[in-house]
Every structure is written in C-alpha cells, then in structure tokens.
Amino acid sequence: MPSDIRRLIIDTDTAADDSFALIVGLLHPRANLEAVTIVAGNVPFEQQVQNALLTIKKTGREGEVPVHLGARVPLTREWVESKAHGDGKGNHDFEASTQSPSDEAAAHALVRLVDENPGEIDIIAIGPLTNIATAVMLDRDFAKKVRELWIMGGCDNSVGNVTAAAEYNFYVDPEAADIVLRAGFETTIATWTLTLAQATWSDEQLAEIAKIDNDLARYFTIVNKPNIEYNKTHGIMGSTHPDSVTAMMLVRPDLVKARSRKFVAVETKSDLTRGYSLFDDRPERNAPNATIIDEIDSLGFYEAYVELLETGPRA
Q: Phi and psi (nearest 5°) for 313?
C-alpha cells in the first residue's frame, strides 16, 4: 500500500456529518477505511447502524467495509440523545442497504485489527469515546499500537453545545473521554469550538453542492437538511461539519494551518461541569498529552469535499 494512504477505522454515532466523514474514509484516494464501529450517541443506536450501512451503500462500497456494533450506552451513565440531527438521514426514506453488521463486537474488532497491524491503523473517533475506552480496558497496550487517534470533541475552555461547560461527545461519556486521554495515544483533537468557527458552510456553498448532478451529492443535500434547520434556530447560518473536517484533515494534513500541544483533561465528578474539557498550554504545569488543531484552511476543506462529491463512487 502506498505510504501516503492512511489505514482507517472510523468510530461513529452516525448522524449527518458522521455520514459525511464516512464518505471521506470510503472515497478519498488517500484513505483505506478498514472498519466502521458504532457507538451510542447522536440518534437511537439501531438508526445509527442503518445510517452507516446506507452511507456505505451510497458510496458504492456495499459489502466491502464491515460495520461493528459497539457500546449501546455510556460506561456508567444514561444515554443522552442529540436534538440536532433528526433521524440522522434527513428524515428521508432511502432504499435500505442489504449489508448486515458484523458479528464481531466493536471493541474486540478494534483490539484485533490494531493488534494485527501495530503502528499502522489510525482511528477517527467522532462520537462519544465509549468504544475506544473499552478497547483500552481490554488491552492495556492498545494505545501504543494505534498509529494516531483523531478525536472530534471538547470545546477548549469555552462554551459547549450541550451545556455552558461541555461539548456533546465529552458530555455523553466523560468517563470514557477521561480514560482515553490518559491512555497514551498519539492524540489529535479537533474541538467543537474550532470546527464551528472554521468548518461551517454557508447557504451559498451548500447551493453549489445542490447543483451537483449525481446521487451522492443529492444524498448529501437530503441528509444535511435537519442540521441546517436546527442550526438556524441557534443563530448558525449554514451547516456545521466537525466530523467530516476531522476525517479530511487526517488524509489532507496540508489543510491544517496551525496546531499546538496542550494538556487536555475532562471533568467527570461535577454535575454542573460534567464533560468540561480543560486545555492547558503550560507544560511546566501539565505535560501535553494531545495535539490541538488551532487553524484550518476552511475553503480548502470545502473544495476538497466538493471534489469528493463531484467524483462520486469509485469505479
């Protein structure tokens, strides 16, 4: 396999932008998506599974990439549904995929694939971190064997999208986030704060996508509608793309314009600040444990994604 191709597992709670991140893994020429693992998050679990299978079908990869079922609830807490995504597929009735999920559980698949390919597999975690934490507990050396772990989560000491303190993925399962951040992964984090500011597409940009005359672009536009409608009720004009930009940056590192090393920890004890992500850039106080994306090429990300949609499924 060429050295510039990244071998990927995407761990997801498949709603709209999660599906768009899967499209990156499934279709980008620098990506080789080897598995999808499903974690309790955005929408009801079985719907997440069907959304992932549907996206694989829409990219022409049906039956080629296994989908593994993971944690249906957080490690110790009740599941909290997101209200931003409808059913995660645009509340639209698509023809269902004929592919069935794998019989191998997500955490076991993660451990096995990484153990068989130490130092070669990247994981993109775009939902709560329950599956990743479970894999860490199954194999204490798991983190050392993963090439890189890219996380979409947290809000860099700022206001979250669930509470005044917390971003959704860290809020839903803060214990899992705590385990993962302590495990010793080579971790990169794209925060909700960053992606809201730098990976939101305007109505004009979305109108250009709507002009693309193929089934994949039409799928994107339908699935994206609830996100746009929800955002407008919160003063956000356009659609937000935290998950797909995280996936795209891994295969297109040139899109990252600035990054920094920081210590990151997640609050697990306080009800008031549950899931709060503390980011500390003072190495004399706390040794850095993650690379933080600080600036991206926003237009470059949009153009790269449009190119994927225009190209469509692999021949």
A: -55, 150
- Which of 7, 52, 41, 38 is closest to 106 using CA atoms? 38
Quote the strand ranges of the chain, DSSP E: 6-12, 31-38, 67-69, 121-125, 148-152, 187-190, 200-201, 239-240, 256-266, 277-280, 290-296
69 beta partners: 38
0.85 exceeded by pTM: yes
% of the chain residues with pLDDT over 70: 98
Residue found by looking up tokens 């955490």 in the block: 107
pLDDT tens digits for range 196-246 = 999 999 999 999 999 999 999 999 999 999 999 999 998 888 999 999 999
Strand order in the sheet with 256-266: 67-69, 31-38, 6-12, 121-125, 148-152, 187-190, 290-296, 256-266, 277-280
CATH number of 6-311: 3.90.245.10
Within 8 A by CB and 6+ apart from 223, the residues are 16, 19, 20, 88, 89, 90, 92
Structure tokens at 7: 């071998």
Q: What is the pLDDT of residues 257-282, one digit of tens each?
A: 999 999 999 999 999 999 999 999 99
